[in-house]
Amino acid sequence: MSYLTNRLFILQGTASVVLAGLISALKLVGGSLADHKFLFLGAGEAGTGIAELIALEISKQTGAPLDETRKKVWLVDSKGLIVKSRLNSLQHFKKPWAHDHEPSIRPTVLIGSSGAGQTFTKDVVEAMASFNEKPIILALSNPTSQSECTAEQAYTWSEGRAIFASGSPFAPVEYNGKVYVSGQSNNAYIFPGFGLGLIISGAIRVHDDMLLAASEALAEQVTQEHFDNGLIYPPFTNIRKISAHIAAKVAAKVYELGLASRLPQPENLVAYAESCMYSPKYRNYR
C-alpha cells in the first residue's frame, strides 16, 4: 500500500468512526442526521473527509442529492467560515463546502479537526449549550494537548448537558455529583473489522457504501446501558465482537454491490468473520 493510499485509508477510517458516533448520538438527542447542522473547526483533509461521509449518509437516508446534503455542513479554516465569496481562493477539496452565507449559524454538532488545542473556549461551549439542550461536541485532535477542549471543560461549561467524545482519551469527570465517562473516537474501532470484511468477501474494489455500512454497524453496538452513561461508542474491551459485526456488515455490502470475488456468500457472515479471526492462543509445553 502506497503512502498516499494508506493516508487516504486512515482519513476514511477516521470519518467512519466519527459518523458512527453521530449516528449513535441521535439516540440521545433525537431526530435524524438531516435534522442537524454540523460545524467543523478545521477544513483540512481530515475535516473535509468526515464532512463528506456525513453528507453521503444523509443523502443515503433521505434520497437528496449530495450537493444539497453538503449544505447541512459548514467548515471554518484559518481564514474563517468557508463561504461562496471565497470560492476562487479555496483549495479544491474545500470548494464543495463553500455555501451562501447565512445570517447566523446555530449548529447542533460541533466537530474539531483543527489540530489546535483549546480552541473550543468557554464562550463557544456555552453558546452551543444555550441553543441546544444536548450539544454534541467532538474534540478530535490528537494528542491530548491539541484537543480543542477537555472532557472536563465540555461537561462543566455545558452544565453537564454535552454529549462529548474526543480523539484523545480523558479520565471520567465528576460534575454536580454525577460521573461522566466520555468516549474516544478511535480509528481502531473500524480498521480491524473493515479490513476483515473486505478480505472474507474478496472485495475487488472499496466503495463509500462500505464505509457507511461500517459506521452503521459500529453504532449498532452501543447499548442502552452505554447511552445511560452518556457514551456514544461501545467499550473498546469488546473490540473482537465489534469487529466481527463490522466485518459482517461490510462483507454484506460488498456482496450486495456485486464486488465480491469469494463466492458463494457465507450463510452467517458474523460467524464466518469470527472463524477467520486470529486468536493469540499458545500451547503450554510445561
UniProtKB/TrEMBL annotation:
Gene Ontology cellular-component terms listed: chloroplast
Family matches, as Pfam families: Malic_M
Annotated Malic enzyme NAD-binding domain residues: 11-255
A molecular function (GO) term: malate dehydrogenase (decarboxylating) (NADP+) activity
Binding site for (S)-malate: 142, 186
SUPFAM superfamilies linked: NAD(P)-binding Rossmann-fold domains
Superkingdom, natural source: Eukaryota
Cited PANTHER family: MALIC ENZYME-RELATED, NADP-DEPENDENT MALIC ENZYME 4, CHLOROPLASTIC
Protein name (record): NADP-dependent malic enzyme
The organism of origin for this protein: Artemisia annua
Lineage: Eukaryota, Viridiplantae, Streptophyta, Embryophyta, Tracheophyta
